[in-house]
């Protein structure tokens, strides 16, 4: 039997980290070779603690899915925490990985790294071509620094130490483990909750902010996890063929976008809400369209598998379970 790599999944209790653990187990990776630590057990902003952990564990691979994540409101109120904690976590983990002989690391970023006015669909080479969206600029700057950390370690230590650190940038994600907080959640979990509550309360209508016309892209989280494992396991030759040393990150999207109105109608259907869906056009809309170009990933042999209807059903089932537990 070939020896299995020892893999650390940072952020294993988060939506994406937990899905990466499920994905590794589903692909036959033995549970005893997957290393995890809760935030309470290991604060990744603590450099000494992170170095001690890496020294003890002798890891082969790292998925960096721990981050301080939040919506527009949290990003506006706590910009210092968003930039500081994300810079610290990723810098500590990436540097400790290098110092302790980890050759393969996957850094998870986000589509907010791209300029506010990037041409649609957004290609990887739109990075650093314009101003960022101001509300989450500190978070986006940290994510861009994460990509550049990976690239710089590859460039300096790739040949001498076999360092091979990669980055994936997912579009909007949803699915099991999502945050259903009434004020501080992303659009899909927020609408699942609102339609569920409207159905339970026999509300005749649900009003959604904006005109309903902006288009957005969504990816089921298990697809994101599968894509991360796929990119991690690509041969160096295949990866090098489709990336550049200073333009190495890879977009991960479904390749399809839909209007907020279409999304709302799909969620209402999934939840079984039969009342009216109306739009308050006095409220702001945001960018008219945000879609990733995932051609690079497609060329590397991966495509999303879970469509929106199936994904929403799985997400709603998770909401019902979570609600029964602790919402
Ligand atoms: N959700 C999305 O739509 C989306 C879209 C694009 C990209 N992403 C990216 O995917 C990654 C994971 O996101 P997610 O949605 O899975 O976030 P999440 O559910 O909030 O999970 C983040 C995880 O990081 C852990 N963490 C935070 N601070 C930590 C610290 N100082 N030390 C140790 N652990 C810490 C959290 O633990 P505690 O909860 O215990 O603090 C949590 O388990 C992020 O890099 C994010 O940028 C997410």
Overview in brief:
The chain has 11 helices and 12 strands. The protein is 44% helix and 15% strand.
Broad structural category: alpha/beta
| Helical proportion, percent range | 40-55%
Strands side by side in the biggest sheet:
2-1-3-4-5-9
Tell me the Rg in angstroms.
Answer: 20 Å
Bound molecules: NADP nicotinamide-adenine-dinucleotide phosphate
**Residues in β-strands, percent:** 5-15%
Q: How many angstroms does the end-to-end distance come to? A: 45 Å
Instruction: Characterize the overall form.
Output: globular
Residue-averaged pLDDT, rounded? 96
Written account of the structure:
The protein is an alpha/beta fold. It is built from 11 helices and 12 strands. The strands form 3 sheets. Strands 2-1-3-4-5-9 form a 6-stranded parallel β-sheet, sandwiched between helices. Strands 6, 8, 10 and 12 form a 4-stranded mixed β-sheet that branches. The longest helix has 25 residues, at 137-161. The model has no long low-confidence stretch (mean pLDDT 96). It binds NADP nicotinamide-adenine-dinucleotide phosphate (NAP). NADP nicotinamide-adenine-dinucleotide phosphate is lined by residues 11, 13-17, 38-39, 43-45, 65-69, 85, 89, 108, 110, 170, 172-173, 186.
């Amino acid at each position: 039997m070939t020896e299995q790599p020892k893999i650390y999944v940072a952020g294993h209790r988060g939506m994406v980290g937990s899905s990466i653990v499920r994905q590794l187990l589903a692909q036959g990776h033995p549970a005893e070779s997957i290393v995890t630590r809760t935030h309470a057990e290991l604060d990744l902003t603590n450099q000494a603690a992170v170095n001690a952990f890496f020294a003890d564990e002798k890891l082969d691979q790292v998925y960096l899915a721990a981050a301080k994540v939040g919506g527009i409101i949290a990003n506006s109120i706590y910009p210092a925490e968003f930039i500081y904690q994300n810079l610290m976590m990723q810098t500590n983990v990436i540097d400790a990985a290098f110092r302790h002989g980890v050759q393969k690391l996957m850094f998870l970023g986000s589509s907010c790294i791209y300029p506010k006015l990037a041409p649609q669909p957004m290609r990887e080479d739109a990075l650093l071509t314009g101003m960022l969206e101001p509300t989450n600029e500190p978070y986006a700057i940290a994510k861009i620094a994460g990509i550049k950390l990976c690239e710089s370690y590859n460039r300096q230590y790739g040949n001498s130490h076999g360092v091979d650190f990669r980055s994936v940038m997912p579009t909007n994600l949803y699915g099991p483990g999502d945050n259903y907080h009434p004020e501080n959640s992303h659009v899909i979990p927020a609408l699942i909750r609102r339609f569920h509550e409207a159905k339970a309360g026999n509300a005749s209508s649900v009003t959604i902010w904006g005109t309903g016309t902006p288009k957005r892209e969504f990816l089921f989280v298990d697809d994101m996890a599968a894509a991360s494992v796929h990119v991690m396991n690509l041969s160096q030759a295949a990866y090098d063929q489709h990336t550049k040393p200073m333009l190495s990150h890879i977009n991960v999207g479904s390749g399809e976008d839909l209007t907020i109105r279409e999304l709302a109608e799909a969620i209402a259907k999934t939840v079984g809400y039969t009342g009216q869906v109306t739009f308050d056009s006095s409220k702001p809309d945001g960018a008219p369209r945000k879609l990733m170009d995932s051609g690079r990933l497609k060329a590397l042999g991966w495509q999303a598998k879970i469509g929106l209807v199936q994904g929403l059903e799985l997400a709603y089932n998770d909401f019902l379970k979570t609600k029964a537990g602790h919402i």
